[in-house]
Structures are given as structure tokens and as C-alpha cells.
Amino acid sequence: MEAPEFLKSNDHHLKFCILYEVALKKPIYDSYQTFCEAVGKDAMRYPDFEFWYHRFRLGKLDFDYDRSMDPAPKALIDMPVKVMRKITENLNPFEQCYLRSMNHVMKNFTDSFPTVFESICVEANDDLLRWQLNGNDFECKEVDDGCTFTKPKCLNTKKSDETITQKYNNRVMKTYKECYIKKSLEYLTPLFEIAKLQTNLLWLEMKIQTPELDGLLPVGFNAKRAYIAAYNSDNAVQLLSTLKAGYLESFKIDFNGPMEREHFTIVFETDQFKQAQTIEIRNDVGFNLEDLVNFEHLKQFICGVKSIVEPEEILQIRDTVSTFKNLEYCRIWCSRNGRQIRTLAEVLKEEVPEGLEPLKLFTHRYKNPAFNKTFEFKISDRGIYIRIDILKVQ
């Protein structure tokens, strides 16, 4: 039962209560909780309680002490900007999230600095949505009567595992999918709303089609590297287009079902592709040899081309790739189609010992006279595929 109003307004009575708590030698926060239970939460703010608690603890028992002459107490936001900047820079991304949740002023200050995660990974399946932030695993999974939510024990949370149960009846028709996705978005949506959020690696596996997840990433999201696996080619391109072109240095793209050359014509036209440095495309996508010119701006790439029908087509690959000004390394796959790579060596005029059968690997060096660059071609038999590794050596 709280104290009557006339006692709550009696300054000396409140200070006697504080002095009593000091005499019990309890921790200050526990004392404040007891004080609030006794006289009410609105009787005195914690900063005022803290002032009198420490004053009485030091033996200064003047209840009528005039505080008006004291300098105004400093709050966290009153610290010099240089100090606040230093504190914020030394916080990990999770600690920055806690700091920005304190109040509006701290949110604005924290948002003036980039929040950088080493990795953000999100995987959406038919019965679960899992995400990982800097190696910390979160998971929301469908169960019979709702969904379960699991979060890391290492974070400052009340419980490591929570069960969220939703009961359904004939009047309220909801699916379990809505349950686990809705619960996941309670955490993921605020994460992607953080101003200046960045990650060195963004890993997305969107294996289900649901409108709730289509707008998960903000347009212009900052990711240096990305792996995108989507439920179809349109979704893959949509996810790629949300990433900030120019900031995105490398990406690998994948999606369910067969991948054909036609699916990538729109990828070639995106700014994300045009401004990237490294690209990897699943090796069973067979590009035409003429498509290789789309990769000429890259430092590194991995892709597949259609079968080399005639051995002389290896010369077209060599003469095209050797003109790429920025290229440092690439790997090109093509179907072996029963062809012996000895025939490719003969076209490239490489001598191969006659007794070496079957030939599994040979190296070819080529200097493009027009660009004064030398490339090393390692051509190897990989079963059903022929792999061509091309490295700039000078």
C-alpha cells in the first residue's frame, strides 16, 4: 500500500525513508525499488533519490540543504561530442542498438555513425526463418500450436528461449507461416531500419514466396559482398537491385529451378553488376562465348559457357579475356562433352608428352600484344567439365 498523499508531499518524510534505506546498507537500486513500493513511483525521481542517498551515506544529514546552488547534474548526453564519439566507436553493433534505444537524442547521435556488422545472414524456409548476426543465431520455427523463438544466450536478454503460442478458432483464420514470419519481422524490421547500417557480408536465402519478406531490405542497403539465393529469377534481381551499387564489390546469385542464360540478361543491365569487381555465377549456366564481353570490367569472375563445339573456340576465349583491362583472375567452366583436352592443347600449340594419356592438365601462357599483359591459362579435365583458370601474371 502506498503512502497517503500528504506524506508523499512531505519532503522530510521522504528523506527519512531514504535515510532508513541507507541504514540498511542495501544497494542503491534495490533501495529505490523499496522506496517506490512504500511511497509510490511518482514521489521522487531516481536522480533525486540518488543525490540524497549518497549524501546521507557520507554522513551529511542536513534535510534542508539547498541544492539550487549546486551545478546542474550532467547526463550522458551532456558529455562532449568527442567523448561520445569515442564511446560509440568502441561499441559493437549490438551495444549500439541498445544505446540508440535509450531515448530520441541518443538514437539520433548513434545513427550519425555507421553500424557495421561483419555478416548478416537470413534464411527463410517453409517452416522457419533463421538469421545470424556476427555469428549470433536467431530462429523462429513453426510448431503445432504456433511458433518457437530462439535467441543467443550471450545477449542481454531475459530468456534464451521463448515459446510464442497462437490459438486459432473458426472465426480467426491465420496460418502458422504468418506466425513465425510475423514474429521474426519484429526483430528484423527494426534491424534494417537502422540508419547507416552496413555489413561486409549479406547472405540471403529466400526459398519461399511471401509478400511480408519482399520489402525486407531497404533500397540502397550497404553490403560489400552478397550471396543471393531466391525462389525465382525475378526475386533474385529484385533483391540485388536493393543493394547500393558501387558499395557492393562482389556478389554471387542463385535461385531455385534451372538457370538459363536468358535469366541473366537483366542482371547484366543492373548498376550493381556494372559497378561490381567480382562476380560468381553457378557453373551450369551456359553463356555464349560472345557473352564474355559483359565481364570485361571485372577484377575477378566465375561463370560457365556452352560446350566448346570446335577446338578453335578456345582461341576465342583466350583472345577475348586477354583484352580485359582490370582482370586479375577468372574461372570459366564448359561442358567436356566427351572431348579430350589434348585437342585444346594442340590448338594452343602447347607440347604435351605423347605418353601422357589421358591428359588431365596443361598450362598455356599468352601475352596480348595490344595490351602488353601476360596471362596464364590452366586448363584441366574435371570429369564432365573442363575448367579454365586464367591468371594475370604480369
Kindly list the characteristics that best describe this protein.
14 helices; 26% strand; alpha/beta; 394 residues; 15-stranded mixed β-sheet
What features would you describe in this structure?
The chain folds into four domains: 5-69; 76-111; 114-276, no CATH class; 281-394, no CATH class. The protein has helices at residues 5-8, 11-24, 28-39, 46-57, 81-89, 93-100, 104-111, 176-192, 211-214, 233-242, 265-268, 271-274, 313-321, 342-347; strands at 115-124, 128-133, 136-143, 146-150, 161-165, 197-206, 222-230, 250-255, 278-281, 286-287, 300-305, 329-335, 361-368, 373-382, 385-392. β1 and β2 (128-133) form a beta hairpin. Helices cover 31% and strands 26% of the residues. It has a 15-stranded mixed β-sheet that branches. α2 packs across α4. With 394 residues, it is an alpha/beta fold. It comes from Caenorhabditis briggsae. This is Protein CBG02191. Residues 12-59 form the Mos1 transposase HTH domain.
